[in-house]
Structure formats: C-alpha cells, structure tokens
Design brief:
Blueprint (H helix, E strand, L loop, with lengths): L20 H39 L7 E6 L2 E6 H39 L7
Antiparallel strand pairs: 1-2
Helix pairs in contact: 1-2
C-alpha cells in the first residue's frame, strides 16, 4: 500500500503543514484497522443474535413448565422454559441495540476515513 498526494498548493490552504507520508500511512492503517475491528464485532453480534433467535424459536412452542438448561457464566443451570424465554428475549434485544449503535459508529468512522482519504488524496495501489 502506498499513498500519493500532490505536492501542489492544495495542502497550503490549511493552516497546518501536511503530515509526512509515513504519518499519513500510519494514520490510514490505524483508521482501516478500527473499521475492520468494528466490522468484525458487528459480525459477531449478528451471529449471536441469530443464535438467540434460533433458540427462542425452538423453545417458544414448548410447555412453559418443561425443563431446559442454560449456560450462565460457564455453569449449566436447570431452569424452566418460562424462566429462560424472557431472559433470552431481553438479551436478544440488548444485542440488537448494541449492534445498531456499532453500525452507526462504523458509518461515522467510515465517513471520517473517506474524508481523510480525500483530504490527502490517498489512493490505494494493489
């Protein structure tokens, strides 16, 4: 990956001097890494939400007094469907809310990243 920027007066209009190519590359890599980490976390949470949906759909039609087992903090505990179902639904809603927040954060970081690339005329060569 290399960055190329024009050495014309495009950077001279701002009050700050243009960062060096090494600083630009480092900032670019940091921003790209942050975006990748956010995307990975969003993917993990979506997978977890899908798993919750699968379990909720599976145990919903069952008798509310039926035994079921739930993993809590690494310990398998015995509960009934009526005790587990509301907790699962609450967890699933929480996961969806966090996912939505992360998606918004990702979009703002992505906009910031694109503005950075445009400001310094950064082009990725593959």
């Amino acid at each position: 990956m290399s960055s190329s920027a024009s050495s014309s007066s495009a950077g001279a209009s701002s009050k700050q001097p243009r960062p060096s190519d090494q600083e630009l590359t480092q900032t670019y890599n940091t921003m790209k890494s942050e975006l990748n980490q956010l995307a990975q976390k969003i993917g993990e949470l979506e997978t977890e939400s899908d798993e919750h949906t699968l379990v909720v759909d599976t145990i919903s039609p069952l008798d509310p007094e039926r035994k079921c087992f739930r993993l809590v903090g690494g310990v398998l505990v015995e509960r009934t469907v009526k005790e587990v179902l509301p907790a699962l639904k609450t967890n699933q809603e929480g996961i969806k809310n966090v996912t939505m927040q992360l998606v918004q954060k990702y979009k703002s970081k992505e906009d910031e990243f694109m503005a950075f690339q445009k400001k310094y005329n950064i082009q990725v060569k593959q």
